[in-house]
Structure formats: C-alpha cells, structure tokens
Design goal:
The protein contains 20 helices and no strands. It is an all-alpha fold and 336 residues long.
C-alpha cells in the first residue's frame, strides 16, 4: 500500500501539485507546510524516488523554508530528514551548496541539539558532505566547530550523536581557523573530564583522546600549567595499547617530557601509579577473602563488587541505553 501511494504521488502531475502548494502557500500556513514536508520526507525515504525528486525544486524549497519555520520543531525535523535522505545522491550535495544549506543546517543544530532525531539528521548530512570531499562547505561556516562541540558536550550519553560530533571535530581541527576557535584551557579540561566517563565506550573515549591531543599539540606548554595532568596520564596509560591512537599518545608524551613542569607531573604520576598498583594488589587479596566467605549473603557480595568497581573504575557510567531507542521514543511522542 505504501509503495502504491508513493507511485501515485510521484506521478509528475501529483508531485507538481505538492511542490506548487509548498512553494505558494506554505509561507502562510504552518499546518500545510508541515503536511507537505511530511509527504516529501516519506517519499525521499524510498531510494527509488530520489532520482525523480532530484529533478524538482523540492530540495531548494525545503532549505528556503527552514529559516521561516526555524522555531517549529516538527517542521525542522521533517525538513532535515528529507535533506539527509536526498544527499544520499551525490549530485544533491551541490544543490545543498547552492542553497547555502550547510550554513542553515548548522544554524538549526544549536537550538535543536537536544532533539535526538533532528541532531542526527543534521550530523549525518554533514558527515556525508565531509566524506564526499566537500569539507570546505562546513569549514567555511564561521566557528561551526563551537556549535558541534556544544552538541558533543550535551549529548555525551547518546553514542551515535557523540561519535558523529567527534568525527566532524576531528576533521574541523585540521583547519587553523576552526582549531583556534576551540583552543582554550577550559575546552581541553572539559574534554579531559569526559574520558573517564567513557571507559565503557572505548571507541568514543579514543575519539575524545584524539581531540584532546590535537588541542594539546597546538597549545603552548606554558598555557597548560594550571591543568593537573596526572589524571590525564592515567587515561593515556589505559589506552596506550589502542593502535589507532598509540602514535598520538607517544608523540605528545615525548614532547611533554622535554618540558620541566610537564616532566615533573609525569614523574609524580609514575610514582603514584607504582604505589597504587601495590594498594590494588592488597585490596584485591582482601576482596577475594571476603567474597569466598560462605557466611556472606549474595546481597552483601554484590554490594562489595559494586564498591570494588567504584574504586578501580571511578566515574565509569552505565552502558548507553542506545540512541535508536531514544530517537524512536521522540518520534512516537511527536506523532501521538
């Protein structure tokens, strides 16, 4: 039934009516705009329709209407969903460029950064643009790295959004202007604080470490004197075996070791680490004795186990509930 309805609407005459109404009346009627946006998003979700839709003004109209309804969450959700579907065809990236679509999408990302569905639509579109070799379209938007960084901070618990932001920031930091916009001691400290919280999401933790190391590489060691680096050295030690970030860690630690204050902090870390290993061995021995006690109830044993995790993995968060479920809940609530 869905395919049949798509076929009917996609007939040249029916589609022309939808687009004419969208162009002529949507500026005046929010409900009409929302209705037609919904139709086009559903059509674009079917890959068989992308080619025909690409020959119309549907993409340009969507982008033109977004500023008009910039505060209307449902319309922005449909518009960004349509654009995400359309950029699967590479030629539509050029249409996005001509309509200043990347800049408009980034403007919508900030106010709707807490909307899982909208944020994902926009970030996926930006990733397609970047991966297709059109990174300059994103880089040319002034301080867009700050917008994406704000989303990263606010969506730490949404792993798909977080990973998309981290990938975009990794690319943006290759641009001197975008790197400078993020280069501050506070940003470095905020990113460092995220790493222990991501220990159960190792891939995401490595992405953040790469961002931190990029910022540290671009910083003057004198500017970092107020940062307590010892907790960060612990995190570096935990991920030193990860091949994709190993070279970054070794390179930065080697450079830091030549700076007197950094070298002193690193030596303190090594001394503390040696003492900590001894304490952990002793604590683990006592814990095994306690857990093997037959008189110990299951509830008490589990409580001791949780306390042991708190000691050995401080700050580790519960596993991410999953962005897909959150997105589906949001969509269901909007349609209810």
């Amino acid at each position: 039934e869905v395919k049949a309805s798509h076929k009917f609407v996609m007939e040249e005459r029916s589609l022309a009516v939808v687009l004419t109404n969208l162009e002529q009346q949507s500026q005046e009627s929010k409900s009409l705009c929302q209705h037609h946006m919904h139709i086009l998003e559903n059509l674009s979700a079917n890959e068989d329709n992308i080619e025909a839709l690409s020959r119309t003004r549907a993409m340009a109209l969507r982008i033109e209407l977004m500023p008009t309804y910039k505060n209307e969450e449902e319309i922005i959700k449909r518009a960004t969903g349509f654009i995400e579907n359309m950029v699967r065809k590479e030629s539509n990236i050029e249409a996005l460029k001509e309509a200043n679509g990347v800049s408009i999408e980034l403007e919508e990302l900030r106010p709707f950064s807490k909307s899982v569905v909208i944020a994902l639509h926009i970030l996926r579109t930006l990733l397609v643009v970047a991966r297709a070799g059109n990174f300059d379209l994103i880089d040319n938007v002034s301080s867009c790295a700050n917008t994406i960084y704000d989303v990263l901070k606010n969506q730490v618990n949404q792993s798909e959004i977080f990973a998309a932001c981290a990938e975009l920031l990794d690319q943006l930091m290759r641009s001197p202007d975008q790197l400078r916009s993020l280069l501050s001691v506070q940003t470095i400290m905020n990113l460092m604080d995220m790493v222990p919280r991501l220990r159960k999401r190792q891939a995401d933790a490595c992405k953040v470490l790469r961002l931190v190391l990029t910022l540290l590489d671009a910083s003057n060691f004198a500017e970092l004197k107020d940062i307590n680096m010892e907790p960060f050295f612990i995190e570096l030690g935990l991920y030193l075996g990860e091949e994709d970030i190993q070279k970054n860690i070794v390179r930065w630690v080697s450079a830091a070791a030549t700076h007197e204050e950094m070298a002193a902090q690193f030596e303190n870390y090594l001394s503390d680490r040696q003492a900590l290993v001894g304490e952990m061995d002793l604590a683990a021995g006592h814990m095994m004795e306690l857990l093997s006690d037959e008189a110990l109830s299951p509830e008490t044993a589990f409580s001791l186990y949780e306390k042991m995790l708190d000691i050995f993995m401080p700050g580790a968060e519960a596993a991410d509930a999953g962005v897909t479920a959150a997105a589906e809940q949001e969509s269901s609530a909007a349609e209810a």
